[in-house]
Design brief:
InterPro entries: Ser/Thr_Dehydratase (IPR050147), Ser/Thr_deHydtase_PyrdxlP-BS (IPR000634), TrpB-like_PALP (IPR001926), TrpB-like_PALP_sf (IPR036052). The structure is a single chain. Helix content is about 45%, strand content about 15%. By secondary structure, it is of the alpha/beta class. It folds into 2 domains: about 10-50 and about 145-310, Rossmann fold (3-Layer(aba) Sandwich); about 55-135, Rossmann fold (3-Layer(aba) Sandwich), CATH 3.40.50.1100. It is globular and about 55 Å long.
Length: about 325
């Protein structure tokens, strides 16, 4: 079992000093369409195009010699940028089916890139880290990544407290659970009573399955999803424990709603999200939030789409 999470103030301040405090956006047209007040925490403008940079900069700082990171796009891109900023070597392990523009984003950070079959990601990263004597930073199991997500939740918590909280709900996408866990931990640490909804793709309900049986379990994937950043087959152990203590609700969202939500965010608010980044908004469109929750905070967690890829590097 993992050790309890103990977040260090100096670490959180280090993240805050390196990452952007991203804007919270609203749009009257979106409110009118949904019948709610929608506030979007826009992590698409974060360094590297996603919230992952927040944890990556801390994890890379804590790597004594160099860092290895495995993932399908946003995480290795974030680690590559963090290593570039901190002048440390990095090896990024990416799957053969990764989107070409994400592979190019990772390559432009100056890190070494290794392409392997998706099934070999974890083993290859472990082997490379062992061979080099470097840190193998995990996308959602390591405490630094949860600390990074905690800073997202803290920024939302501060905004809720500063704006006379009404009947609020916060929706966060869930892959391995690092973002959801960090946000939930922050909101509850700030004593924010908002309802927290953890949204998963219909085809990858890792947390829902883990809740059913009481422990994280590797799921048998019934299909694919457009949310390529959310294809982990098992929720993280630390993330599961945090979410179980945080009084959250879990919901599943279809790819069709995700694609509709992405178009809606672009058309109404000008926020260009990748499918994974639209999952939380899709949950709103799916009607999962209780009707008495009049103000909804949505995290647009990533915006790495082809038309913006080169602009960010």
């Amino acid at each position: 079992m993992p050790r309890p999470i103990h977040l260090v103030r100096d670490d959180l301040e280090f993240i805050a000093g390196r990452a952007l405090e991203t804007p919270i956006r609203s749009c009257a047209a979106l409110d009118a369409l949904t019948g709610r007040t929608i506030l979007v925490k826009d992590e698409t403008v974060q360094h590297g195009g996603s919230f992952k940079f927040r944890g990556a900069i801390l994890g890379t700082r804590n790597a004594e010699r160099g860092v290895v990171a495995a993932g399908s796009g946003n995480f290795p891109i974030a680690v590559g940028l963090a290593a570039q900023e901190l002048d440390k070597p990095a090896c990024l392990v990416m799957p053969a089916d990764v989107a070409a523009f994400k592979r190019e984003q990772a390559r432009e950070t100056g890190a070494e890139i290794k392409i392997v079959e998706r099934s070999e990601l974890v083993d290859c990263a472990r082997m490379e880290a062992h061979r080099r004597g470097w840190r193998n930073l995990h996308a959602f199991e390591d405490v630094e990544m949860i600390a990074g997500s905690f800073t997202v939740g803290s920024e939302i918590a501060a905004a809720i407290q500063a704006s006379s909280p009404a009947s609020d709900a916060v929706i966060v996408a869930c892959g391995g659970g690092g973002l959801a866990a960090g946000v939930a931990l922050a909101l509850r640490s700030w004593s924010i009573p908002a309802a927290i909804y953890v949204a998963e793709p219909e085809t990858h309900q890792r947390y829902a399955r883990a809740r059913e049986i009481g422990v994280p379990i590797r799921i048998d994937r019934p299909g694919d999803t457009v949310c390529d950043a959310l294809r982990s087959r098992q929720i993280g152990v630390r993330a599961f424990e945090i979410l179980q203590r945080s009084n959250v609700q879990v919901c599943a969202v279809s790819d069709e709603l995700v694609q509709h939500a992405a178009r809606l965010l672009l058309g109404t608010c000008g926020i260009r999200v990748e499918p994974s980044g639209a999952l939380a908004m899709a949950a709103v469109l799916g009607g999962v939030v209780d009707s008495e929750r009049s103000r909804i905070w949505v995290i647009a967690c990533g915006g790495n789409v082809p038309s913006l890829a080169r602009e960010r590097l």
